[in-house]
Amino acid sequence: MIIRQxxxxxxxxxxxxxxxxxxxxxxxIDPGADVERIMAEAKKERLLIETIVNTHGHGDHTAxxxxxxxxxxxxxxxxxxxxxxxPEVDVRLTxxxxxxxxxxxxKVIHTPGHTPGGICLYAExxxxxxxxxxxxxxxxxxxxxxxxxxxxxxxxxxxxxxxxTVIWPxxxxxxxxxxxxxxxxxxxxxxxxxxxxxxx
Length: 200
Prior knowledge:
Elements lengths: L1 E7 L4 E7 L5 E5 L5 H10 L3 E6 L5 H4 L2 H8 L2 E5 L11 E3 L4 E4 L2 E7 L8 E5 L2 E5 L2 E2 L2 E2 L9 H11 L7 E4 L9 E2 H7 L13
Parallel strand pairs: 3-4, 4-5, 5-6, 10-13
Antiparallel strand pairs: 1-2, 2-3, 7-8, 8-9, 9-10, 11-12, 13-14
């Protein structure tokens, strides 16, 4: 799997360009801004963007989706509960379906709490968490549609993944740009609240 983490916009957002090494097909996750930079990175890596996934409906994650779709012909995928935020959306997800990208099969994990339609993407030991889980923290729940207990339940689901799962968050808010499930169990400020391990 090819992963390029790009900081975009003015809110320390991370956008991800994820590609299949075998087919050079690519997915862009949360293109909130800097679409030209995303396109340049795809060209550099010889990747064809065929899918755009928004992990939730907030504008700092979705603002570039329509333009990227216009430039590439890629389809926009979101959870149905957040899809109204992006009129150009092509696929409205429900449940926890799979998404195929070349030879890579992603598991979509519905993780409401930050927004009703928040999702994470998991494949090959890599977890793209949007605003559900940050390095050392978690998403806000004081915005419309946010709900703290629901977010806690979503994060507890993520904590069932293998400890060596790499976490790729939606913002550069932590001490490092990525982490692992094991690290979060021991260091996340919400560890005890979410019912997973706390550092001794």
